[in-house]
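User: Show me sequence and structure for the first protein, then do the same for the second.

Assistant: Starting with the first protein.
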Amino acid sequence: MNEVVNTGGLPTTLYFRIATRGQQVIRFVAFDYYDKKKIYCNRYMPINAEGVVYIRLPYTPERMVFRVYNDKTGNLANFQIVEKRQMPFKSKMKISDYSKETAEFLNLAIWMSVHLKDLSGGGSSYMSKKANYRIDVYDWITSDGVKLNTPARITKEEGIMELSQGRLIDFTVFEILAVELHEFAHFNLNKVMEDESEADINALKIYFDLGCPVIDAATVFLKVFKHSDTEENMDRLVKIENFINNYTRQYKYQFEN
């Protein structure tokens, strides 16, 4: 199924009820109608006979293309969309609820998460509205001429964030936002700047308070740790999973799945 959804750029939740012939893996993909590189959703869900999925989109393009298909066959084989509709969007916080400083960064970070793949790399700089925050965009982040696997980093002295277009090329806009929030937390929220787990949790708190999708919060760390499965990162994953479970249980009204 390919369908154009007109959101008017407003937050929305998309509801699907799916019927399948036995166990099937159904994929859901949403991207900007005018730029398919801007991916707002790319997830799958195993469904046996019948299942319901809610796609939470706290920010959207004016028009988006939504695709639902069998992840194995790439088409509509062995399943049927019984019901689909848009639902009201709920979140604990809005950008305007934060301090002026944090809101200033959030506006830059959300804009960057949407437009990153279209921007000039090579160290181009992008400033927030009042120039309190700066993000530099690179084709790849390097150290002494060596290309690094990291998707992002932030300088300890000035808090200048660096993003790697090459590393983030297959990330959704919400996964990119989670990466940005992690780096922001290091410099602006952490009690111990270098503490990775503290930055993870501080970032996820903002991410979930804004109503961002749970699935992207999980997949982003799996992508980041894919080529770096150190003991420290495995410990971080356990803490991340515990935080996600506790948060979504506490604010269940926001997160159906």
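Switching to the second protein now.
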Amino acid sequence: MYESEAKSKTNADKLAKQLEMQIADTMAKADEQARQLAEMASQKSRLLGENSDLNRQLEDAEAQLNATQRLRQQLQSQVEDGKRALDDEIKVGSAFSTEVNLTLIAAFLIGKASSPLASEDAPARVPATPRAARRGD
């Protein structure tokens, strides 16, 4: 029986060594997984921070876009107002120019009809432009 006890003890020692090796492997795997878990937690924290920064940047960009669109609308409105004012000025200027030309023509015709110097021998001076009439040419 002594032999069988020695054999059993040897088998038990082998089994104990195998179990110790399995425990060491399991512990190493657990340590690796704990390290990976800590690394992932750190990465998650970093990504959440980056996400927060990007969301803040997006909000800032959207606010700038809205402000730019409002400014664009204001400028377009000012351009339209300017165009209307210019059209009005052109209409007033055109009407004034027509009135001045008609007045000059009427003055010329009245002057020619009532002037004793007006004859077919003496050519009458008619201003070429309204500007020349204002200067007295």
